Automatic annotation (TrEMBL), chain A:
Recorded GO MF terms: 2 iron, 2 sulfur cluster binding; metal ion binding; oxidoreductase activity, acting on the aldehyde or oxo group of donors
Pfam families: Fer2, Fer2_2
Domain 2Fe-2S ferredoxin-type as annotated: residue spans: 1-75
PANTHER family: ALDEHYDE OXIDOREDUCTASE IRON-SULFUR-BINDING SUBUNIT PAOA, OXIDOREDUCTASE, IRON-SULPHUR BINDING SUBUNIT-RELATED-RELATED
Name by which UniProt lists this protein: (2Fe-2S)-binding protein
Keyword entries, A-Z: 2Fe-2S, Iron, Iron-sulfur, Metal-binding, Oxidoreductase
Gene Ontology CC terms, in alphabetical order: periplasmic space
From TrEMBL, chain B:
Pfam families the UniProt entry points to: Ald_Xan_dh_C, MoCoBD_1, MoCoBD_2
Gene3D superfamilies: Aldehyde oxidase/xanthine dehydrogenase, a/b hammerhead, Aldehyde oxidase/xanthine dehydrogenase, molybdopterin binding domain
UniProt-recorded Gene Ontology molecular function terms: iron ion binding; oxidoreductase activity
PANTHER family attached to this UniProt entry: ALDEHYDE OXIDASE 1-RELATED, XANTHINE DEHYDROGENASE
Protein name stated in the entry: Dehydrogenase
Organism: Novosphingobium barchaimii LL02
From TrEMBL, chain C:
PROSITE patterns: FAD_PCMH
Location of the FAD-binding PCMH-type domain: 1-221
Keyword Ligase: no
Gene Ontology terms, MF aspect: FAD binding; oxidoreductase activity
One Pfam family this sequence matches: FAD_binding_5
Keyword Flavoprotein belongs to the record: yes
SUPFAM superfamilies tied to this protein: CO dehydrogenase flavoprotein C-terminal domain-like, FAD-binding/transporter-associated domain-like
Record keywords, A-Z: FAD, Flavoprotein
Protein's name in the database: FAD-binding molybdopterin dehydrogenase
Length: 173, 777, 328
């Protein structure tokens, strides 16, 4: 039984209790994905599974068989940053940096959702297929990612800049 | 300068009275900061530039390794079991099932835990770091609800967690004091904070209040809070020979190493604490039981141990902010001049820590008043020790004080900004010391202009858009300049012209590494890429606490001192053939990667050339910053004028902040980009304080009932509007680099600004935090 | 977390076959179950993963919809027909939890999510009749600001936390079930129980019964509907009170109305009394207030949640006024 992590096959652990989060951090040593609560309440553990943002702390690793997981390490490296990672640096979208991988993965998942027309709590017209990338839309859609350092303004600015320049679907790839 | 040699003692509170007076009266140039830091003059170099964080690429790519992310060979995972009673003893503890559970390596409880001394409680010695002084897992007594009673070590986290759930503990409960009201009934005690009493009196304030033409007298309540850094407290501990290695998430590595050394009876250099990245601290990432338990467990198992507290565990093991009940009474004449200023109240601590929430601190130097009475009383409960949380004292104290000022402005029908300006003191009202630099009036004027304060309708409850009532409010934020003794730094210059600064400081997101790289580059006259800054390691020089917003000053003073010594050493090394030959340290400055004569820059030699001629690969100096006498000679405080616009739903009472501006006077801003983030971060925590944060402590059992980020609300993206911040950028002539520290001031004044805006919107004065919608229905 | 075995169900039959053993739990998105297992509140011996089953949203002849139990919350909210015809359902779903959780959570799991009462969650240190029947309820005299004002008992004052279910209750949704004995249907509004003296029994499901789908009756073309959620934080917070309402007005009179309340009871609370007061009467503020009062006449506050009565009343009235206003 395997899953794909950042393009490479990874053997699924035998103990079904192992969360995707612990599997990434402890077994694969991919500690870029963070644990802030292990309760689904902070978003620090957000990763992309088949392109969708999910919480790895509430996902069991066994459920990932045959699925493709992208973590922060799969998005860019210090030498080759994803444009959104670069924008986080420019806009100071973090302080301690602990929520940051989750924020970035979440934003990338969000971009795909917006491109698909998924409505949010602040979307006024549910009949519209195109979502306007407003400040409120970004804030509402990113609300599952807590930042105790309070880097929210910088995060929103980084996301807005990145996804305003590239069409959403493209940037999300 | 005998003053300086006695000063250390004085600062540690030993000989305070007389010494303080001597320092206050001493000539300026005897005092550190008496001669302005030369860096203040430099306006065109690295300092003040919005440099992006140097650790940014590591952090955004997930490569920055935090405490629980250092794998070690043979490592075992720990899980804790917490007590469920507040006081009593463990009658039996049955660990058999846990021990037999697959993957379990060992179970540790009070019966087999290594013997060790109790933690030295914070402030009991210069490097003491303990949150309390209770012995850790040394006996069967239980001292608070949630205290660790057993540690399970397993091959995997899942195995350890499961086994921990199999441990059965039977307690013998003893009567515990867990109710604030009940404790108060038994009497309160005067509070002592950092060796000083939290009591101040000038004149007869109660009499002046009674006589005053206009009076405001109200009680304000603030609840318990928890820091809730997103990184869980994690530690990886290993015994390597006779050295104990600890990867910690810490805002005080040197203190932690010393304190753990004391407990295990080891020299502090045998305990190596590293903490290169800290996922948020806010006062919470200090020494609590978990680091010690991990070290003990590593001994018991003879294997490295990784211990990460669960989110619940953080609430059970790491203290938070205590609740307060504060009275603020103001008496004024019709023009608004204060005749009486009274700020008193009660807070909660434990018998085993030394931390009464010092909520009167912001009031000491706030306003000119004929009379003054400040007092903090404490009661002691059977609970986990409380501790420092961002702006201890000021954060909740300004809520009471600045709400009361708003109430007075309302009673007088005077604009609240004008009222504050009318009561601006000329010198520190409590100590009589001159202010080092106080530009709060500028901050108010600039802020009012930018925020559009003139558009506020002073009559409450009148502005409405649809269902939303709209209001504006303001408040003063304030935080003192601190610099603690012990800051030391090593500067090493290498033959290829690079400088390395080593100091046991911390980066929890404040931007320390970035700003200090800028400062050092500027001091040494080097480009940024030739400076590296090493920190977060107890083997480096210095005892630097990342707390009290003092780390910048502490590092600045230490690096400044090391630089002075470096210049001396370089001049010696330079010899007779150097263009700077014959010059004294006072004649030269560091510029363009070398030294030159201050008033004759063409007499210049590069560091590389000096080292090369002397045949040296490196030159290294280490120096300690001077004792922080400046705070006894000047009254040194930062200030902020906080402006808030809220919208309150007239149907549901939901309060939402729509605009916020902080106008700061914090001395020189070293890096506007990271400073902006610090200001915003503080303000956002202040919004949480104002509107949603509360640790629910069930007084029946002394147990925290919302140990979770789902139930303890901190602000989310949607709660936070674009937050604006501006600053005077006026250097404090008496602070290193002219900078006074910016980490905590953002949270101060914010809750009052929100509460005052809510009053303006709704006509409802809410005096107990958090201001949740039920209070506005 | 206890040790357990994990298996994916091949199809519905397979799931029910496996699910009939004692100690088996169905696993949806896991956002509630995995959390509760980690807290040692749920201790299943095996998990049968049903996320691969029933992932379609089907239009039924006559205009209704059949939503598979395995449909993720996001997929439900974004579905074109749901957005167009049952917008309150989309509104309810997107007001819940966070985007990540909605991407994981399934319709079946959302219906069966358990209460967020702090004492229920505190397995080690608190009494809870729902968790361990007969042990007592620490919430009644403890922190109960978020707790029930309607239909509570002296055994339990917990609330059902779902937003989605409140909308479903107002939509007259039917839950499709399959168990050992075959298929059956039950109205969503009747699926959850009041606590009574057995708060550990939360639904009418038989052991091993699987939710296979939710059926929505055809939407009336002239009705207006919405969902309004009131909470402490602007997002990512459970409802203190929420109101789902569907209103049909003809010539100033209420032809049809369905109202459900969230955050007030052990189940999504269908406001039958209010509906009865309104039906046939004028669609006017006074009537709305009378209806709300009628519904809340039986409300019993606890030490910390009296405000919910006022809040529920005001929110109901505001929602009905909004819907009536839209029509006018
Ligand atoms: C931090 C946080 C905040 C949240 N906020 C909100 C909120 O604001 N509003 C809200 O409504 N919800 C909220 N939730 C709850 C969330 O909506 C639920 O956890 C989710 O809907 C459950 O769906 P699931 O598929 O993950 O269920 P699971 O966790 O997989 O299962 C839940 C239960 O349903 C059973 N089950 C699952 N599928 C079936 C089936 N087909 N047949 C029979 N039984 C089944 C399981 O055995 C289990 O008992 C929040 C959750 C978290 C963690
Ligand atoms: S760690 Fe997964 S949401 Fe917090
Ligand atoms: S940057 Fe520290 S929590 Fe977000």
């Amino acid at each position: 039984m395997t899953m794909i992590v950042n393009g490479e096959a990874a053997e699924i652990p035998r103990d079904p209790r192992v969360s995707l989060l612990d599997f990434l951090r402890d077994d694969l040593n991919l500690s870029g994905t963070k644990k802030g609560c292990d309760q689904g309440a902070c978003g620090a553990c957000t990763v992309l599974v088949d392109g969708e943002r999910v919480l790895s702390c509430l996902s069991l690793a066994v459920q990932m068989e045959g699925r493709s997981v992208t973590t922060i390490e799969g998005l860019g490296t210090p030498g080759h940053l994803h444009p959104l990672q670069q924008a986080f640096i420019e806009h100071d979208g973090f302080q301690c940096g602990y929520c940051t991988p989750g924020q970035i993965c979440s934003a990338i998942g969000m971009a795909a959702e917006i491109a698909r027309g998924v409505p949010s709590h602040v979307t006024t017209n549910l009949g519209d297929d195109a979502i306007r990338l407003s400040h409120d839309e970004l804030r509402e859609r990113m609300s599952g990612n807590l930042c105790r350092c309070g880097a929210y303004n910088g995060i929103v600015a980084a996301i807005a800049e990145t996804f305003a320049e590239a069409p959403l679907a493209e940037a999300a790839e | 300068m005998s003053i300086v040699s006695d000063a250390k003692q004085a600062i540690q509170g030993a000989v305070q009275g007389a010494m303080a007076k001597a320092v206050a009266l001493a000539p300026d140039n005897w005092i550190p900061g008496g001669e302005p830091d030369p860096l203040i003059r430099e306006r065109y170099g690295h300092v003040g530039k919005p440099l992006s964080r140097i650790d940014g690429p590591l952090k955004v790519s997930g490569q920055a390794r935090f405490a629980a992310e250092f794998p070690m060979d043979g490592m075992v995972y720990a899980a804790l079991v917490f007590s469920t009673i507040a006081k009593g003893r463990i009658a039996t503890i049955d660990t058999a099932l846990a021990e037999a559970s697959p993957g379990v390596v060992a179970v540790m409880d009070h019966r087999n835990a290594p013997r060790l001394a109790p933690p030295p409680v914070f402030m009991s010695a210069p490097k003491a770091a303990g949150g309390d002084n209770l012995p850790i897992m040394q006996g069967n007594d239980v001292r608070w609800n949630g205290e660790p009673v057993a540690v399970v070590l397993g091959e995997t986290q899942e195995q350890a967690n499961h086994a921990a759930s199999l441990i059965r503990v039977i307690y013998e409960e003893a009567p515990a004091l867990t109710s604030f009201a009940e404790a108060r009934g038994q009497g309160t005690r005067p509070a002592v904070f950092m060796g000083q009493s939290l009591h101040d009196e000038r004149g007869d304030a109660e009499a002046a209040l009674a006589k005053a033409e206009v009076q405001v007298d109200a009680t304000y309540l603030t609840p318990r809070h928890n820091h809730n850094a997103i990184e869980l407290h994690g530690v990886t501990a290993a015994w390597q020979g006779d050295v104990l290695r600890i990867h910690d998430a810490s805002q005080l590595v040197a203190h932690t190493a010393w304190s753990i050394g004391q407990m295990f009876g080891m020299a502090e250099d045998k305990v190596v604490v590293t903490s290169p990245f800290v996922g948020g601290g806010f006062g919470g990432k200090c020494l609590w039981q978990h680091q010690v338990l991990a070290a003990m467990a590593a001994k018991v198992t003879d294997r490295p141990v990784r211990l990460v507290l669960s989110r619940e565990g953080v609430y059970r093991v790491v203290g938070g902010r205590s609740p307060t009940e504060q009275r603020v009474a103001l008496g004024a004449d019709r023009e608004g001049r204060l005749k009486a200023l009274i700020h008193t109240g009660v807070t909660i601590k434990t018998a085993t820590n030394a931390m009464p929430e010092p909520f009167i601190l912001p009031t000491r130097s706030a306003y000119a008043s004929d009379t003054l009475k400040l007092d903090v009383q404490v009661v002691e409960l059977d609970m986990l020790a409380n501790t420092f949380m961002r702006a201890p004292g000021e954060s909740v104290g300004t809520f009471a004080l600045e709400s009361a000022i708003d109430e007075l402005a309302e009673a007088l029908d005077i604009d609240p900004i004008e009222l504050r300006i009318r009561n601006e003191p000329e010198k520190d009202p409590s100590t009589g010391l001159p202010f080092s630099s106080r530009h709060i009036v500028e901050a108010w004027r600039d802020g009012a202009q930018r925020f559009g304060w003139a558009r506020r309708d002073p009559r409450p409850g009148l502005r409405r858009e649809g269902e939303w009532l709209i209001g504006m409010g303001c408040a003063t934020g304030t935080y003192p300049y601190y610099r603690m003794p012990g800051g030391a730094a090593r500067i090493t210059l290498t033959r290829d012209g690079r400088a390395i600064v080593d100091i046991a400081a911390h980066e929890m997101g404040m931007g320390t590494a970035t700003a200090q790289t800028q400062v050092t580059a500027e001091r040494l006259g080097l480009p940024l890429d030739k400076v590296s800054f090493n920190y977060g390691d107890s083997t480096l020089p210095g005892v630097v606490l990342a707390g009290g917003s003092q780390q910048t000053a502490s590092i600045g003073a230490a690096v400044g001192a090391a630089h002075r010594d470096l210049v001396k050493a370089l001049l010696k090394l330079a010899g007779n053939e150097s263009p700077v030959a014959g010059l004294g340290p006072g004649d030269v400055v560091s510029r363009e990667e070398g030294l030159c004569k201050a008033d004759e820059p063409s007499r210049h030699e590069t560091y590389t050339s000096i080292l090369a001629r002397a045949g040296r690969e490196t030159i290294s100096v280490e120096a300690e910053g001077p004792p922080p006498l400046e705070t006894m000679h000047w009254s040194m405080h930062s200030h902020a004028a906080m402006f808030c616009e809220v919208r309150v739903n007239a149907v549901t009472g939901e309060p939402r902040v729509s605009r916020f501006l902080g106008s700061f006077d914090c001395g020189r801003i070293l890096n506007p980009k990271t400073a902006m983030s610090q200001f915003r971060g503080g303000i956002i925590m202040g919004l949480g304080l104002a509107l949603m944060e509360e640790t629910q402590f069930d007084e029946r059992k002394g147990r925290v009932m919302n140990p979770s980020l789902a139930e303890y609300h901190v602000p989310v993206h949607m709660d936070v509007p674009e937050i604006d911040a501006i600053w005077t950028d006026i250097p404090d002539p008496h602070a290193p680099m002219g900078a006074r520290g910016i980490g905590e001031i953002g949270i101060t004044g914010t809750a009052a600004a929100v509460a005052n805006a809510i009053y303006n919107a709704t006509c409802k004065r809410v005096r107990d935090l958090p201001i949740t919608l039920d209070k506005l229905l | 977390m206890n040790r357990f075995t994990y298996a994916r169900a091949a199809d519905t039959f397979d799931a029910v076959r496996q699910g009939s053993d004692a100690g088996v739990k169905y696993l949806g998105g896991g956002t509630n179950l995995v959390d509760l297992m980690r807290e040692t509140i749920e201790k299943p011996a095996s998990l049968v993963d049903v996320t691969g089953l029933s992932r379609e949203i089907e239009e039924l002849p006559g205009g209704g919809l059949l939503i598979g139990a395995g449909v993720r919350n996001t997929a439900l909210a974004e579905h074109r027909l749901v957005r167009q015809r049952y917008s309150l359902l989309t509104r309810a779903v997107v007001s819940g939890a966070s985007a990540q959780i909605r991407n994981m959570a399934t319709v079946g799991g959302n219906v069966l999510q358990r209460t967020r009462c702090a004492y229920f969650y505190d397995d080690a240190g608190s009494r809870c009749n729902k968790r361990s029947p007969g042990s007592g309820c620490d919430a009644i005299d403890g922190f109960n600001r978020n707790h029930a004002i309607l239909g509570a008992s002296t055994s339990c004052v917990a609330v059902h936390p779902s937003d989605m279910c409140v909308a479903l209750a107002a939509l007259d949704a039917m839950v499709h079930l399959r168990g050992d004995g075959g298929e059956r249907r039950i109205a969503l509004a009747d699926l959850h129980c009041l606590p009574g003296d057995r708060p550990d029994i939360e639904t009418m499901l038989e052991p091993g019964e699987l939710i296979t789908g939710i059926e929505l009756p055809p939407a009336s073309a002239i009705s207006r509907s919405t969902y309004r959620k009131v909470r402490d934080r602007s997002s990512y917070a459970f409802a203190l009170v929420s109101v789902a309402a569907v209103l049909e007005v003809e010539e100033g009179h209420v032809r049809n109305v369905r109202i459900a309340l969230g955050g007030v009871a052990h189940k999504p609370w269908r406001a039958m009394r209010a509906e009865a007061v309104l039906r046939g009467g004028p669609a006017a503020s006074l009537a709305f207030a009378t209806a709300a009062d009628a519904e809340l006449a039986e409300a019993r506050p606890l030490s910390g949640n009296a405000f919910k009565i006022k809040l529920a009343r005001r929110t109901m009235v505001a929602v009905l006024e909004e819907l009536a206003g839209e029509i006018a």
